[in-house]
Specification:
By secondary structure, the chain is of the alpha/beta class. It is about 40% helix and about 20% strand. Helix 2 links the parallel strand 3 and strand 4. The model has no long low-confidence stretch (mean pLDDT about 95).
């Protein structure tokens, strides 16, 4: 079992210097250039002393639609967000992103990694919205890789023969809560559980490869 002070080095080595951070966004549509970013959540992935990966700390923020943002009624019906509700504790995009980025940069340093890499279900969607918001806000220090990602839809297809998140959760022996789905915090956390379950399945193959053994 690795010593606690060796865990950062092991995390950095496992993903070639990248720190996996699970991200989910809820939006006002499918176009990252024109449609509002309404919620964002990020979940760290942690490495336990027994060598297993588990979901770590979560950050979640409601986001104010940027000026002129489009919001499709069909999308709002799916995610259940009322962007103009008077009690909705939303932050401007810039503030929400900077709060998450600050925590992610700290985690990258603590794990001796060089950069964060976004993990998502259909990750290209989340990464596109994240990058578009970063560009709108003029943020210069984005800790995430600009185009690489880990996609649990792809990984689920490989590991379980399923690409729909709820079906992957079921195949992995996890619990799916349909009433909580389409909340950024819930979707990010359950995606983190899926990602960790899949990575943990490949632990033996990874360790054999590091030793120079072919599976």
């Amino acid at each position: 079992m690795p010593e606690a002070d060796a865990m950062p080095q092991l995390m950095a080595a496992r993903f070639r210097g990248f720190l996996p951070v699970v991200v989910d966004v809820e939006t006002g549509g499918f176009n990252p250039r024109t449609d509002a970013l309404l919620e964002i959540a990020a979940v760290l992935v942690e490495l336990r002393p027994d060598g297993l990966f588990v979901p770590g700390e979560t950050w979640r923020y409601h986001v104010k639609p940027f000026e002129g943002a489009n919001m499709e009624p069909a999308s709002l019906e799916v995610n259940g967000i009322d962007p103009h509700h008077p009690l909705r504790p939303a932050l401007p995009e810039h503030d929400a992103l900077q709060r998450i980025f600050r925590e992610v940069r700290t985690a990258v340093r603590e794990h001796d990694c060089t950069r964060a890499i976004l993990v998502g279900h259909n990750a290209f969607f989340d990464l596109q919205f994240l990058n578009a918001a970063v560009e709108r806000c003029g943020i210069k220090r984005n800790p995430f890789h600009p185009f690489s990602s880990f996609d649990t839809a792809t990984l689920g297809g490989i590991a379980y023969g399923q690409t729909v998140l709820s079906r992957i959760v079921d195949a992995a022996g996890l619990t799916w809560d349909s009433s909580s789905a389409h909340s950024a915090a819930y979707d990010a956390h359950i995606t983190a559980e899926v990602f960790c379950a899949i990575v943990n399945q490949f632990r033996g193959i990874y360790e054999d490869t590091k030793k120079g053994h072919r599976p």
